[in-house]
Amino acid sequence: MFNDACDYERFVRLLYAANGERLFKLRDIPEDRAFDFDRGNPLVDVIAYCLMPNHFHIAVRERQRYGTTEFLRKICTGYGCYYNIKYKHSGTIFQGKYKCKPVDKIEYLTILINYIHLNPFGIKEPNITKEARIEHMSEAIEYSKDYEYSSFKDYLGENRAVRGILAAELPAITPVRPV
C-alpha cells in the first residue's frame, strides 16, 4: 500500500485535507499550507494514527453524522486514485470494509492509542506474539518513537507541522513514554 516515502507523505496530507466539508485537490494546496489550510468544519477529531506498509490505523471521534464514513471514503478514494495512476494499477487497493470499534471507556482508549503508536515495532519484529510484545515494551517504544508516519511523536511533544492532523484537544490519557 505504501511503497516509498512519497506514498506515505501523500496519505498523511490526505489525513488533514480529507477531514473537512470542503472539496479539495491536493495539487492545488501549497506544500507549506498542507496542514493548516481552511478545509471547512472537520468531519472527525483524529485522535491517533499510524501508517504501516500494508495497512493503517486511525482512532477518531465523530463530529458530524456519518463523519467517519465520509472521512474514510475521501481518504480511500483520494489515495486509491493516486496509487492507481502512479503504479498503473487498476481497481481497489483496500481489502473490504474498514473495521470500526466503539470506545466507551478511557482505559480502552488509552490501550487503543498505545497499540496504534507501538504498531511500527511489528515492522522490526513481524512475527512477535502478544506476550512477547509486552516483554519487549521498552524496545517497542524506542523503535516506534522514531517512526515518522504516526502521531506518536506528537504525543511525545515534538513540534511538527503534521500536528494539524490531530484534534486540537487530545484525550487526557497517559501514553507510553520512552524510558
Number of strands: 2
End-to-end separation in angstroms reads 32 Å
> What letter string, H or E per element, gives the SSE order?
HEEHHHHHH
Mean pLDDT: 90
Report the helical percentage: 25-40%
The shape, in one word, is: globular
Strand order in the sheet with the most strands:
1-2
The main β sheet shows up as: 2 strands, antiparallel
Class from secondary-structure proportions: alpha+beta
Counting DSSP H or I runs of 4 or more residues, the number of helices is: 7
Strand content: 5-15%
Low-confidence stretches: none
The rounded Rg comes to: 16 Å
Describe the overall structure.
With 179 residues, the protein is α+β, with helices and mostly antiparallel strands. The chain has a domain at 5-97 and 149-165. Helix content is 38%, strand content 9%. It has 7 helices and 2 strands, in the order αββαααααα. It has helices at 5-17, 67-86, 106-118, 121-124, 130-135, 137-144, 152-155, and strands at residues 44-52, 55-62. It has a two-stranded antiparallel ribbon. Helix 1 (5-17) runs antiparallel to helix 2. The protein is globular and about 45 Å long. The relative contact order is 0.17. The model has no long low-confidence stretch (mean pLDDT 90).
Give the arrangement of secondary structure elements.
Layout: H1 5-17, E1 44-52, E2 55-62, H2 67-86, H3 106-118, H4 121-124, H5 130-135, H6 137-144, H7 152-155
Antiparallel strand pairs: 1-2
Short description:
The protein is an alpha+beta fold. The chain has helices spanning 5-17, 67-86, 106-118, 121-124, 130-135, 137-144, 152-155; strands at 44-52, 55-62. It contains seven helices and two strands.
